[in-house]
Amino acid sequence: MFDATDYEDFPLIEPIENTGKAFYRTVVVLVAVIVFALFMYVRQLRIGLGVTGLNEPVAWGFYIVNFVFFIGISHAGTLISAILRLSKAEWRRPITRMAEVITAIVLAIGGLHPILDLGRPDRMMNIFQSGRLQSPLLWDVTSITAYFTASTVYLYLPLIPDIAILRDRGTKPKWLYEFLSWNWKGTEYQKKVLERAISILMVMVIPIAISVHTVISYIFSMTLQPGWHSTIFGPYFVVGAIFSGIAALLIVMIAFRKVFHLEGYLKEIHFSYLSILLLIMSLLWFYFTFSEYLTGYFGHEPYEMKVFWYKFAGEYAPYFWTMIFCNFLFPLIILSNKRTRKIPGILAASCGVVVGMWLERLIIVVPSLTNPRLPYPQGVYIPSLTEWSLFAGALSVFVLGFVLFAKFFPVISIWEVREGRERAVREVTERIESYLPTPHGAKSG
Amino acid sequence: MARWGMVVDLDMCTGCGACIAACKEENNVAYVSPEEAEKGRAISWMQMVNFVEGEFPNVHIKYMPRPCMHCDNPPCIKVCPVHATFKDEEGIVGQIYERCIGCRYCMSACPYTVKYFNWFEPEWTESTIASMNPDVSLRKKGVVEKCTFCHHRLQKARDKARAKGMEVVDGDYTTACADTCPTQAISFGDLDDPNSNTARLSKSKRAFRMLEDLGTEPKVFYLSEGEKNV
User: Fold this and answer.
1) B146 within domain boundaries
2) What is the crossing angle of helices A233-259 and A268-299, to 10°?
């Protein structure tokens, strides 16, 4: 069943069929970090959450910060891929797969974080047995599960024809591709069903994705706490999520392009287009941040101001101003300039945005808790080794997830790239011709 | 049906802290080492909050004993994902330790910071084990706890009243802090009973509640200090 045409996209298949030493080395390092993190978690289970830096009144710290952060990154994927597919952006073809993989992996990681944070994870099932749908936490459980289901299906469906290509090539392990390809033969009927399913999912996934980060913001904004009780938190979180998601996607794309030598697929223009989107999101993010803090400052409510000054000139000022630099000034300078909007610059800006968005989550969660309304001594939060190692563990799971995915499946959708080569030019020409203004006197078609 | 509440007369409160000690004894509150207490892991259902007013040399420190406010509109209940915190028909806000999953959402949502978490498996000193209150259940590692208005005392009083075929009324039961207060600054009773001293005090012109403008409707009232202290 060897198909000669499959040499056409050999760079995409090569990493699956030939395993290098670098792969094993990476996996060993990542697994070591994950095992250490697991050890620290088991220790936390045995001793109690006292091994963290949490206390009274700072009841939430790194685990919740990372929960919000990772779920935010997950918006890279499915949402961007769905919007690009929906708007028939032809340049999407080599990007969508990676975006969708980010979503699936990061959602699993983010979704686990509230469990790390639980004092009694053994009682987690109480959420289903005696859950209160009135609690914003239950809204989260609902929408994250929905998003995870939708986005894994949305990742898997467009993967089927590619799995079939691997099956036909006889790539090992054969049983895996045999099983996962669902007897895909590429018949007209199968193609029609697949296309229909993808187009239903891509429309469905957009509102689900938006709901996810909206209800995560509701965890905070539904309380009365100063700095949290804000009506714009929903859209603010969604904007931040898409923003950090695009940055993460750019980093992943640059990494794979370098490691797998995908220069022929991921061209400068892809990075240029996506980074302009990143720049727009940066401006939008700044607009939301500005509105959020200006209303707080103008109202000058005493409790609100306590949190405000804690961020602007108090203990969190270094983090706050680093965030402003990383999320706004730095990307603005680099990405608005054609000379610096090249791959090294884009990589730097994206790394900055990811760091900045993590800081943003920290700056939202912690200062409102360290400044309670009653005049207690101000709370202090210093994350412990346990929290840092679980953070490192979570990042390693992310990289490991990607490395393993790339070991078994193509990180760029082969059939969609081929479809693009076959049909895109004709289709786009037809589309443009269909809306070109008709000259005076000519017959309108 | 009674609606239990508390009034603290700040004119009479000396800030001695007897209420704090009595509460810990009564409710089997776990011992926390000084090092952990320093990190903010101490549990104290009753807490002395001091408000510093004015600037040197005209400084005035106001002591306010702070139990759970047992709000009529409690922000903690709204956010709990598993019904582990609830308000009963007599207005007492309770916590089900055996159901709590330890997410600490209620701690983050409480504007009065009255909720406490068991960061470790609780420990007791030898002397406290000897004098433990058999009516109050012990809390385990990983759950949230807080002032219950000495709910176990209410249950005892209810049993007594039921034996006589009556309902619990004002005066049948009081909290450990109110019992202990050497200046009788704390009074506890039925806020809906017109004959109750506590209800009468809660309607005093001096009466106010903490962070009243949040609309949480606390059932702990304070009587502001008279002119002699200013």
Assistant:
1) yes
2) 150
Say if residue A1's pLDDT is above 50: no
| pLDDT greater than 50 at residue B230 | no
> What is the Cα–Cα distance from B115 to B97, expressed in whole angstroms?
12
Q: Could you read off the pLDDT of A251-307 as tens digits, one per residue? A: 999 999 999 999 999 999 999 999 999 999 999 999 999 999 999 999 999 999 999
Determine the average pLDDT of the residues in B21-48: 92
Amino acid at A240: G
Task: Report yes or no on B182 lying in a domain.
Answer: yes
Whether A302 contacts chain B with CB within 8 A: no
What is the number of domains present in chain B? 1
What pLDDT, in 10s, does the model give residues A316-336? 999 999 999 999 999 999 999
> Is residue B229 in some structural domain?
no
Interface A-B: count of C-beta contacts within 8 A? 132
Name, in order, each residue with C-beta under 8 angstroms of A106's C-beta and a sequence gap of 6 or more: A70, A71, A73, A74, A76, A77, A248, A398
**Cβ-based contacts of A132 with chain B (< 8 Å):** 80-83
Are A224 and B111 a contacting pair at CB < 8 A?
Answer: yes
Q: A66 to chain B nearest CA, in Å?
A: 15
Q: B71 in a domain, yes or no?
A: yes
> Where residue A444 falls among pLDDT bands split at 50, 70, 90?
low
Backbone angles phi, psi at A47, to 5 degrees: -85, -35
Domain span at B192: 4-224
Which amino acid belongs to residue A278? Answer: L
A59 to chain B, any CB pair closer than 8 A? The answer is yes
* Interchain pair A118, B109: CB under 8 A: no
Tell the burial category of A27 from Cβ atoms under 10 Å away from its Cβ (0-12, 13-18, 19+): middle
- Provide the whole-model pTM: 0.94
- Selected for mutation to probe chain B from A64, A68, A135 (highest B CB count within 10 Å) is A135
Residues of B in contact with A126 (CB under 8 A): 82, 84, 99, 101
Domain A4-121+132-424 maps to which CATH number in 1.10.3720.10, 1.20.1630.10, 3.60.70.12, 3.40.50.300?
Answer: 1.20.1630.10
B81, B108, B112 member nearest A135 (Cβ)? B81
Q: Which residues of B touch A225 (CB under 8 A)?
A: 108-109, 111
Say if residues B230 and B10 touch (Cβ distance below 8 Å). Answer: no
CATH (domain of B74): 3.30.70.20
